[in-house]
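We were asked to recover a plausible sequence for a given structure. The inputs and outputs are reproduced exactly as logged, with field labels preserved.

PROBLEM: sequence recovery
POSITIONS: 314
GIVEN STRUCTURE:
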């Protein structure tokens, strides 16, 4: 396997005590390697440490401990060279309100020492449906359009790594669709994408690997498919011919539950477990004289796994 494009080792962040406020540790010794060209989703509730970790990698926040290597460069000792390889789309819609779209995106490119490339900037703005707004002042744009400008600014210097910090928060459906098309296109061109998101269905669809963070601790990192296999569960719902008031004692081994006022018998099982398969359960249901009109099975989603790990929805 090739060397990671981003390596985070033992990175922690503790904010010193101030006044009556005690010291706060936002990150606890995080170790994480990001593969070149992958889409990595970092999931966690508010206050989990996602933005703190991104801010440290991007040089906005100084870590208390640890090292960060960006494409072989020490992100602290060789900050300028490392930062040129990174694009960041922050949560906040802070932009140069009186600048035009074209001017601010072009200026962002020059900030990173890139030579002028009008053709690239034009294509970038077209890809984000901003070309028609290129002469508009940013203060005149809608929130969705301002978000597009932030993405354009982050991509203006052609970075190798792109951070998307809650990019879908508060944006319209059209922008979300355009943005994920662009994410796939960037990944196809070799750009490494690291995103945090509350839209777990997008992470489930887009990500190659998933990390779960809570309380400043990285709980796990795994390939999405492997994570779903190891932690995922299946649900079997039987739509009953007649509702039940209680679960028959004969089914206690499988611990099913009654849903929808007793009209549905639900069995949740681990696909890797022994003796917990659907055939044995259905035989027991038949032996108990329970009739059902329909059945449906479903896999647990990434959100279900997240809730099981963290105890709350992101």
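RECOVERED SEQUENCE:
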């Amino acid at each position: 396997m090739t060397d990671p494009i981003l390596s985070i080792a033992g990175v922690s962040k503790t904010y010193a005590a101030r006044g009556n406020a005690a010291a706060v540790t936002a990150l606890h010794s995080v170790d994480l390697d990001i593969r070149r060209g992958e889409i990595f989703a970092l999931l966690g509730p508010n206050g989990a440490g996602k933005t703190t970790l991104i801010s440290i990698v991007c040089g906005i926040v100084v870590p208390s401990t640890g090292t960060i290597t960006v494409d072989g460069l020490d992100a602290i000792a060789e900050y300028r060279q490392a930062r040129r390889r990174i694009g960041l789309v922050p949560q906040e819609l802070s932009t140069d309100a009186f600048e035009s779209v074209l001017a601010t995106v072009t200026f962002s490119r020059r900030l990173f020492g890139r030579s002028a490339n009008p053709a690239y900037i034009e294509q970038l703005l077209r890809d984000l449906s901003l070309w028609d707004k290129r002469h508009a002042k940013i203060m005149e744009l809608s929130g969705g359009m301002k978000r597009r400008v932030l993405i354009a600014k982050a991509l203006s210097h052609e970075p190798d790594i792109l951070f998307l910090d809650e990019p879908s928060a508060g944006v319209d459906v059209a922008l979300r669709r355009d943005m994920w098309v662009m994410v796939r296109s960037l990944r196809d061109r070799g750009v490494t994408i690291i995103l945090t998101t509350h839209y777990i269905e997008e992470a489930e669809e887009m990500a190659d690997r998933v990390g779960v963070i809570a309380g400043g601790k990285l709980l796990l990192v795994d390939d999405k498919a492997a994570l779903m296999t190891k932690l995922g569960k299946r649900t079997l719902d039987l739509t009953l011919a007649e509702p039940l008031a209680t679960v028959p004692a004969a089914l206690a081994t499988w611990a099913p539950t009654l849903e929808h006022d007793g009209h549905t018998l639900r069995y949740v099982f681990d696909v890797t477990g022994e003796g917990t398969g659907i055939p044995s359960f259905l035989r027991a249901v038949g032996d108990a004289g329970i009739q059902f009109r329909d059945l449906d099975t479903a896999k647990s989603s990434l959100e279900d796994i997240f809730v099981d790990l963290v105890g709350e929805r992101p």
